[in-house]
Amino acid sequence: MENEKIKKLHVHKRNPQDAFLGNDILINPKDFPDVVLRDILEIHHSDSDNSRLLLQVTTVTGEFQQKDTISIEHSIASSFHLKPYNNVVVKKVDPKAVALDLVELLFKDQYFSRSDFWRLRDSLSNTCAYLNMKLEAYDMRAQVYELWSKGERVTCGVINSDTRVVFRSSTSVVQIFIQMSSEMWDFDLYGDLYIEKAVDGFLTDLFAKWKEQNCLHDVTIVLFSRTFYEAQYI
Fold it and tell me: Where is the Vacuolar membrane-associated protein Iml1 N-terminal domain (predicted)?
């Protein structure tokens, strides 16, 4: 296509003490005269359509002067199977064409109020997101867990004003109520007690899933029942 460019891929390691090396992507402005700040670039190898990476341009200062070359942060390039020192196709894309419908953010060991959620959501508007991306704003930290667009899971995209942002905590306070009724000692069609299905089925599967997702919830299990009294005793 007309706006596609073939460039050689380099990688760099993020350096928190160096603002320039803190960017996800570095480009030479002379190679991309039509690209301005906050534009979205699509990067992929010409022989692969599966690992298309979307990144937002956050610097065009000209400090990166290597000709016909772009540089992507090392961990991002590795996650999207982009091979250093190989040619990649770089294309400027319309943010509306790659907009996300839903973003799930995961956080832990932090308390967020409603105003915190709103501020973090507002800071993400018109930005690019990718899987496992680490976010930090207003002393709040989160990680991109899932991305959805047009009913399908995707690996990257653009968050706009219409994107739903869902916050999930891996360190929540969870209370599980189990009613110990007489039916819990009944057998199901396969000969299992319902109490066994609750303990060895539901709870076991739930804790295994939390362990797989590295969750550290504070769980309280409450066993409760009820008793019927005749009206004359009330």
Answer: 103-232
What is the spatial distance between Cα 185 and Cα 182, in angstroms, rounded to a whole number? 6
Same domain, 203 and 132: no
- What pLDDT shows up at residue 1? 46
pTM of the model: 0.78
- Distance, in Å, from the CA atom of 10 to the CA atom of 25, rounded to the nearest integer, reads 10
Kindly report the length of the chain: 234
Q: Do 106 and 170 meet the contact criterion of CB atoms below 8 Å apart?
A: yes
Q: Are residues 25 and 79 in the same domain?
A: yes
d(CA 97, CA 122): 21
Cα–Cα distance measured from residue 112 to residue 119, given in angstroms and rounded to the nearest whole number: 10
> pLDDT tens-digit profile of 23-39?
999 999 999 999 999 99
pLDDT per position as a tens digit, 43-59 = 999 887 667 899 999 98
Q: Given phi > 0 = left and psi -120 to 50 = alpha, else beta, which region is 112? A: beta
Co-location of 85 and 38 in the same domain: yes
Cα 162 to Cα 102, 122, 159, 165, 185, distances in angstroms: 9, 12, 8, 9, 49
